[in-house]
Amino acid sequence: MTGLWKTWITIWCWGVILFGALLAGAAFPATDAGVRLLYGLLASGPLPDDFLAAPGIRFSIALMGAVSIGWGCTMLFLLPAIHAAGAPAWRGLTAALAVWFVIDGLLSAATGFPLNNLSNLALAIGYAIPLLASGALKSA
Question: Which pTM does this prediction carry?
Answer without folding.
Answer: 0.87
